[in-house]
Amino acid sequence: MADRMSTAAASAQALIGFGQVRHTRLKPVLHAFNYPTYFLMLPLRAMQRDGPGALARNRRSALSFHDRDHGDGSPDCLRWLDALLQSEGIADAQGEVWLHTYPRVFGFTFKPVSFWYCHTTQGALRAIVVEVNNTFGERHCYLLDAPRYGEELRADKVFHVSPFCKIEGGYRFRFMRTVHDGNEHTLARIDHDDATGPLLQTSVAGKLEPLCPASLRKALWRYPAMTFGVVGRIHWQALKLFIKRVPFVSKPKPPELFVTR
Hints:
Strand order of the largest sheet: 10-11-12-13-1-2-5-7-8-9-14
Distance between the termini: 25 Å
Order of helices and strands: HEEHEEHEEEEEEEEEHHE
Number of strands: 14
Number of domains: 1
Low-confidence stretches: 5-10
Mean pLDDT: 91
């Protein structure tokens, strides 16, 4: 699709995606991995109007979504997002907001990155907020103004994520939301270039389907410890990089500003 939501997206039904996370480090040694995953794709304005449907929101459940896991930790993450956009001079993103994020599983979650797709009331993509968390409990947002699906977007790297990457260079983002054979797919790709060129290539992609009791059961049966696995894999891959003698970078102070344009 181009800059407008597909027919499936326009229905504003909560979705769940099943797919793959991929990660490739290009230097100083080659290090690559991929693993299956699932994620939520939530139309927050529709959910505010119609309720969460089959998804447990702000309450205990085997699989749930909690507003305070995002933004400034307030009980209404959509209100936080609208305030952030207004403070950055974006006043016309009053259409649907699709949040691509991981859920809580048995009360636990870690969200390395979440994507907020913000649309105008006419359905055009107006902004994307890339919300990044590190394992030190810190959070930072990259605001991509006037994005287009399929086109490369750039931002300077200012936030510490990995102890094996310096705070230098920048990110290249690319997003897709397409329909193939009647099935909707989404792709979010983030590549990191350091001072000497491409360093990391990462992506998360999946096929979207309606979020309902059956799809929630499928997620839990297939990946009963998914969010525990996210944290476990982060530390396991860090150990592998340490064994490969990739230089360790001490944690710097977080950036003064919470949002990078």
